[in-house]
Structure formats: C-alpha cells, structure tokens
Amino acid sequence: TGVTTIVKLGGIQAIAAMSIGTATVPRVYKIFGPGNQYVTAAKQYAQQLGIAIDMPAGPSEVCVYADASAKPAFVAADLLSQAEHGADSQVLLVVNDEQVLPPIQAALEEQLAMLPRSVMATSALHHSAAVVLPNIEDAFALINSYAPEHFIISTNNAVALAEKVINAGSVFIGHYTPESVGDYASGTNHTLPTNGFATAYSGVSVDSFVKKVTFQQLTKAGLEQLADTVVTMATAEGLTAHANAVQVRLK
To answer: Which of 49, 115, 149, 185 is the right S-S partner for 194, CB 3.0 to 4.6 Å?
Structure first.
C-alpha cells in the first residue's frame, strides 16, 4: 500500500526506537540504510532483537581501475571523494602500467591540499594502496576478490571491462561516471555492501523491501503423481510421518 508513516528521526536513537517501538514510533520488521560506525553497531544490536537489517556495513571504500586513457585529475578526485568520508575509509587504485601512477599522484596531492577535510582524507590514504597489474585477468581477479563497495572503471573500453565484474556493490563505467552521482542523483541505491561483503550481498533495492510468500494447491490426481517421490525421500530420511501425510490421503 506504499508509505504510511514518516518519522523525522535519525542516528542510533532512531534505530533504537524502531527496534523496540515507542509511543510515537512503531516497531518495524526491517531497518535499512547507511550510517557511521555507531549506526552500524546499533543495527547489529537490533538484529539480536529480531529485526532484519540490509547487510553488514563498514567504512566507505572505492576501487578505481585506470589505464593510460584515464584523466589523472578525474581519478584523483574519485579517490579523494571516498577518502574524505573518514579516517577509516579506504581507496584502492589498480593500474595496468606503472607510468599511469605519477600523474595521478601529482593530481592527488594538488587536490588534497585544497580539501577542507584534508586531514581526514590523508589518514584514509595512509592505509590505502595502488597496485600495478599489467595482465587484465590478474587485475580483475584482485578486484573481484576485494569486492569493493564502489568500483570505477576509468578506461576507454570500460563497457567491455564491466563484463568482468563479479563482485562489487555498484559499478561506475567510464570517464564521466564519478561515484558521487551514485550517492546523490543517478538513481542507484546508496546503501551498498562494504568490507568484502559484496561477495555475498547486493545493495539495497526496492526488492529488499519485498517479502515473498509461496502458495501451492494440489488435486488428488496431482498428489498421486508426486506421491512416490515424496514417500521415497521422506522414508530415506526416516521421516515416517511425512510419508504418511501423503499415503493417508491416497488410501
């Protein structure tokens, strides 16, 4: 029936209210959405109260794959757009040629000096990395193993390379698709798996809010067709009552 209640509330207090219910905030079944480490901890605690959450989520991260066709200023800006989130954020740059790195490094230093959150971004860069892998298969083996929250393909053949992606929260294809548009305007959801959880989880979507119920109805003739299969499998598992629930109907 759509949205029926909107509550203007945020932070861990919102998660607490929705987890247990209050006089003004109803208890919910699921809690989705991004947040800082306190919000993440609160959501994990909510699970102990029987509330479903979207996914385990940690600090923000981005991986950029770039080659000689990449614009150094673009790549540097993409790396910093995640590094400025917090000191615990992480960025990973993968390139196919060592010569690609110096112009990106220069652009990174130039842009970093102008950032109001430069101290925080610098802290994030300290535990980030740049990797040179000339072989494209090796590069994507690493990227799929890392399973980045955000993955930017900064090459002229980005569309073709996107076919190699197996694990990522959201993929940004080409030189003019910065991660920032995914945060604010491109239409994809901003709540994405981090810390390698893209190997097992997808980002939040409309489907995340859907609960599916299955139904089945058999006629006697239909049950007769399935009876031998059910009785054989139930008997093999030692579940006599399961088998009898079929047999009693066909006597």
So the answer is: 149
Tokens representing 48 are: 């102990």
Helix (H) or strand (E) segment spanning residue 173: strand 170-173
On average, the pLDDT of the chain sits at 95
In-domain check, residue 5 = no
Which tens digits make up the pLDDT trace of 175-192? Answer: 999 999 999 999 998 889
Select from 45, 140, 136, 55 the least CA-distant residue to 92: 140
User: Does 84 map to a domain?
Assistant: yes
The pair of structure tokens assigned to 50 is: 């029987």
Residue 237 is part of which domain span?
Answer: 220-250
- Taking 90 as the threshold, does the pLDDT of residue 238 lie above it? yes
Catalytic residues: 149-150
Distance from C-alpha of 147 to C-alpha of 194, rounded to nearest angstrom: 8
pTM of the full structure: 0.86
Whether 63 and 40 have beta carbons less than 8 Å apart is answered as no
CATH number at residue 188: 3.40.50.1980
**In contact, 87 and 155? CB cutoff 8 Å:** no
Predicted pLDDT at 1: 67
Count of alpha carbons within 13 Å of 138, Cβ hemisphere only?
8
Is 153 within a domain? yes
Rounded Cα distance between 90 and 13, Å, is 28
User: Per the structure, how many domains does the chain have?
Assistant: 3
Say which residue the tokens 């209050």 belong to: 22
Q: What is the mean pLDDT of residues 109-132?
A: 96
